[in-house]
Design goal:
By secondary structure, this protein is of the alpha/beta class. It contains nine helices and 14 strands. Helix 2 packs parallel to helix 8.
Length: about 375
């Protein structure tokens, strides 16, 4: 069995460090924002029509909590749900059992690529695979998410974009986009294309990092390796440029005493759960205008070489400190007894990097076919 880690946010052709966002994109965003504000004032009394893009038939617990909190605390109606058919089941053995011969060959090819290009990081993925699943990452059926049952549901696979990232199939994009006020991207990887401008308020997406300091992937890892005292969390309105969208909500968490990357992740995800409701609520405020970062931070990617060794060393020391202080058990399920809205949470679906065994997209053929269902 090929080792697995967190799913990648983009394919291996993700832009290199120092990618510059065009001024043309920024000026276009300003004009779109003004149009959105005018539409917003006209429809203030109506619930926002929300579309949600999900990673598969199940979603991590933190996504369920974020969606349900948005429904409970804001005036919205989830009208469209798009499920990534390439997400695969949660169990790797189940995933492999349902592959065709050609899909299995593609899967092995993906494994070989990751082993060749990220051998050390792939090795750490083996260790993470055999560790306990944190509460916030535990899968839940999307049918159990409040607010989703009455929505139109579509199942499709992402269509690879030129260079990097994905498009939604044209049929899905043209059905969902014009008929929603905002779309929340919790699946389908790095999304690009005209669909991003179709909803009235665009497409919202989480990034576990400060756009002015840490862009790219894996979320929260580089802050941990660089001994940063804090780590950012951003809800952005995305465009075609990677981690360079308009900031709807941003916050930071204290990680000065975090002994593992998992602990950094947990603290960031806990903020994400509350941030979605806050961000969607701000869309109804005529005085709120998303901001554009003054500058963009370094675009990080999957670690290699000495960075992986530093990660292994810091993680080992962190676990030893946790055991010495009697807190080792909290890393496995740190929030099992906390109230629903306080439990922590990855994510990408956040921009986390992959190694062999990723069952979300790797090794699966991608098509534009989709199926609509009504619950």
């Amino acid at each position: 069995m090929c080792p697995a880690t967190d799913p990648p946010s983009s394919d291996p052709t993700t832009p290199s460090e120092g990618e510059v966002v065009s001024n043309e994109s920024a000026s276009r965003g300003g004009a779109v924002s003004r149009g959105r504000q005018a539409h917003q004032e006209e429809t203030q009394a109506e619930p926002l029509r929300v579309g949600v893009l999900l990673p598969g038939e199940t979603a991590p617990a933190w996504m369920q909590h974020a969606i349900e909190r948005m429904v409970a605390e804001t005036d919205v109606e989830i009208t469209h749900v798009v499920v990534n058919e390439a997400g695969g089941p949660d169990d790797l053995s189940d995933f492999l059992a349902q592959l065709t011969v050609d899909e299995f060959r593609e899967y092995l090819s993906s494994c070989r690529y990751r082993l060749q290009h990220y051998p050390l990081w792939a090795a750490t993925g083996v260790l993470r695979q055999f560790g306990p699943t944190p509460e916030y990452q535990r899968p839940t059926s999307i049918e159990n998410i409040d607010g989703v049952a009455d929505a139109d549901q579509y199942r499709c696979e992402p269509v690879p974009a030129d260079g990097f990232g994905n498009h939604l199939p044209t049929e899905v994009a043209e059905t969902v986009g014009p008929n929603t006020d905002v779309v929340v991207r919790l699946g389908f990887g790095v999304l690009k294309g005209e669909f991003l401008e179709m909803p009235t308020h665009g497409v919202l997406s989480f990034h576990r990092g400060d756009l002015e300091s840490y862009r790219g992937q894996p979320g929260g890892l580089w802050e941990f390796l660089h001994d940063e005292p804090t780590a950012g969390v951003t809800l952005q309105r995305i465009d075609d440029d990677l981690d360079a969208g308009e900031v709807v909500v941003e916050d930071e968490v204290d990680i000065s005493d975090a002994t593992t990357w998992r602990e950094v992740e947990r603290r960031q995800i806990a903020v994400c759960e509350a941030m979605l409701a806050e961000g969607v609520g701000r869309l109804r405020d005529p005085d709120h205008e998303p901001t554009t970062p003054d500058s963009l931070g370094t675009l990080y990617t999957i670690p290699s070489g000495t960075d992986v060794l530093r990660y292994v060393g810091k993680t080992a020391v962190g676990h030893l400190r946790s055991l010495a202080s009697g807190a080792g058990a909290s890393d496995a399920d740190p929030q099992a007894n906390r109230p629903k809205w306080e439990s922590g949470g990855d994510g990408e679906n956040t921009a986390d990097a992959g190694a062999p065994g990723d069952t979300s997209v790797a090794g699966r053929s991608q098509s534009s076919d989709f199926v609509k269902t009504r619950q």
